[in-house]
Amino acid sequence: MPDRVADELAIRGLTARFNHMVDQLRGADCAAAFTENGVLESAGRLEGRAAIAAFFDAQAHGEPVDIGFGMTGHLFSTVHATTDNVITIEGDKATQMSYMLVFRQVPSELAQDGLYVITHRWDDRLVRTDAGWLFEHRIMNVLQTNANPDATAQALRLPTHP
């Protein structure tokens, strides 16, 4: 019989390791946190390990990428911190809802003082595999940001500032 505490710790550990790999732009390691056909929905939709790895590898090589809210640019440095994980396990499947704080250095025209702060919620589906727990599907839902207010409002379909 599976140990629920051990399973929750394994899922929290997977989430923390994924954050560190994202911060270090280690594409293959980011992709390894997913099932072979896993899906990551954040700035766009990435399907499969190859697409996930390529997205982070492009950033590591300095290519401009979609940084959210319809903006393209370079990620100079990013720190992710996850909190308030709520995990439900049913056999070899699990869901996780967690909040994340993201601190991202960006060009100053995109955020005050060049620091883009985002809070969002992750909605995850995970599966237990022979290699341990892996993400099957991760969906990021932005809750707050200090990004350019007009760009934020446009992305969220809110009225822009006069």
Helix-strand blueprint:
Layout: H1 4-23, H2 27-31, E1 34-41, E2 45-47, H3 49-60, E3 65-68, E4 71-73, E5 77-90, E6 93-105, E7 115-129, E8 132-145, H4 149-155
Parallel strand pairs: 1-8
Antiparallel strand pairs: 1-2, 3-4, 5-6, 6-7, 7-8
Number of helices: 4
Please identify the structural class as seen in this structure: alpha+beta
- The coarse overall form would be globular
Rg value: 16 Å
What is the average per-residue confidence, as pLDDT, rounded to a whole number? 84
The stretches of 5 or more residues where confidence is low (pLDDT under 50) are 158-162
**Distance between the ends:** 60 Å
Task: State the share of residues found in helices, binned by percent.
Answer: 25-40%
Number of E-state strands? 8
Please give the order of strands in the largest beta sheet: 2-1-8-7-6-5
Order of helices and strands: HHEEHEEEEEEH
